Amino acid sequence: MGHEASPLLPEKLPKVDTTIFTVMSVMAAKYDAINLGQGFPDYPMSAKLINRVKKALDAGHNQYLPMAGYFPLRNEIANKVADAYQATCDPHTEITITPGGSYAIFTAISVLVEPGDEVIIFDPAYDLYEPAITLHQGKTIRIQCAFPAYQIDWSQVKQAITANTKAIIINNPHNPTGQLLSTDDLEKFEAITNNTNISIISDEVYEHLVYDGKCHHSILERPHLYSRAFVCFSFGKTFNCTGWKVGYCIAPESYTAAFRKIHQFNAFCVNSPMQVALAEHLADGNDEYQQLSDLLQEKRDYLRNQLSQTPLKCLPSHSTYFELYSFQRVSTATEIALAERLVKECGVAVIPVSEFYKNPVDNKVLRFCFAKQTTTLSEAANRLKQFKW
Ligand SMILES: Cc1ncc(COP(=O)(O)O)c(C=O)c1O
After folding, report:
1. Residue 335: CB within 6 Å of ligand 1?
2. Which of 72, 125, 285, 287 is buried most, with the most CB atoms less than 10 Å from its CB?
3. String of b and e for 241-256 (b: at least 16 CB within 10 Å)?
4. pLDDT for residue 19
5. What domains sit in the chain, N to C, each tagged with a CATH number?
């Protein structure tokens, strides 16, 4: 059947194309490549938690839950952050369950950004932040973290602050670099923003994926910063179930009230069986996420060791699902060109780090996801060892 021409739509995101994650995943499927591009585990999640979802479905938890989230789950989250960060958060007024961490970040941006507002983010940056700011007619101010350590230069942040600065978005632990903010970083951040009205969005979805005996410091540990913050988390990363898209936002009471005003007209609430299962899982003292670091560190070290037998050079990091590798000593290709060659000719999909910048900076670095079974990592490494760079 023929279709009539559709009316033209407003172009709200003229500079946005399909994300590199989708592009590389499609290419990985087309060329039958091992996908070390997109950040998701290929190993099974907890069977116990799956059984809890089944039980919740059978028990009839299939209708709407409260807009702010299933209360027992919010209560368990309050206990969890008290344990992890010595933070006291009221589950009634400060915790909201969301359909994933991204939704929490997007909603926080919706709350804060008005036309002309400036929001500071740090390059390389997760791809969601700028489009969400643009949709609310804000202006994104990007500050580059210095290569190759990717540290934030706080004096640059201080200089970038203007009367229009509405918010600063931090991502800690950081995707794609795997870097962590230190106590010193957070002290500097606090010193710069104290006595201002600048809000903070803290993307902490990788909170439990931290290695080498390092520690994640949450904004929840710092009352001054928390008093102006939306702190966003994801159960997808915590329980190896990225496809569930369940997360939460913790924010002071007035911020949470503003957050829920928008959330109630968007998702309104999050799927019930998952929330019921997660609440029961946490209440059961189930802290398998505490063992995540050991599991993931083993995988990271395995891949490091294997890739040390290739011309790639590791840029060491301490967190997330990702590690960066430089190919500078072996190829003058652009990151994107080499990533395309690797999918097509080597059968391994990875992500060019230049894609995390607004104006691509080509440091000859690729992002590898190591949240994979050893057999997957081993096969990818074997292919890379044989590749003719
Ligand atoms: C830095 C960062 N923030 C947020 C998210 C989104 O989390 P969720 O899948 O829970 O929406 C991701 C997912 O990859 C991420 O890497």
Report:
1. no
2. 125
3. bbebbbbbbbbbeebb
4. 85
5. 20-45+290-386 (3.90.1150.10), 63-288 (3.40.640.10)
